[in-house]
Specification:
Blueprint (H helix, E strand, L loop, with lengths): L6 E5 L3 H12 L4 E5 L2 H10 L4 E5 L7 H10 L6 E5 L4 H10 L3 E4 L4 H11 L1
Parallel strand pairs: 1-2, 1-3, 3-4, 4-5
Length: about 120
């Protein structure tokens, strides 16, 4: 399935996982830029164009749910997709309540990733 390349902001505090996820995203022809927290995400969003945000849920400074609420409060309307190793129904519900538009489990899988991209574009 061909998809137009998208610009994706990845928010994850784990630098090793960032590299793995960036390589995965870029292997499908998308451009990706990684940051590790809310402040870096806000700076990136102010200085670059993105089509979609992928954010980890469990991070030390602020979890992905809180981060999403802050971005929504800042007026960010881009699709925000949760990334989690958990995948529980409770996490999925909390993601929705926080203003997230989707949920992917880690490790990322091609079919699920492409389906999420296709949902919004």
């Amino acid at each position: 399935m061909y998809q137009q390349p998208r610009n994706i902001l990845l928010i994850d505090d784990d630098l090793l996982l960032q590299r793995v996820q960036l390589a995965f995203i870029e292997s499908y022809g998308h451009q990706a830029f990684a940051v590790k927290n809310l402040a870096e995400a806000q700076e990136a969003l102010n200085n670059r164009h993105f089509d979609l945000i992928l954010t980890d849920i469990i991070m030390p400074e602020m979890n992905g749910f809180e981060l999403t609420k802050k971005l929504r409060d800042d007026g960010i309307k881009l699709p925000i997709i949760a990334l989690s190793g958990n995948g529980s129904d409770a996490d999925r519900q909390q993601a929705k309540q926080a203003g997230m538009n989707g949920y992917l489990t880690k490790p990322l899988r091609q079919d699920a990733f492409n389906k999420v991209i296709a949902t919004f574009f």
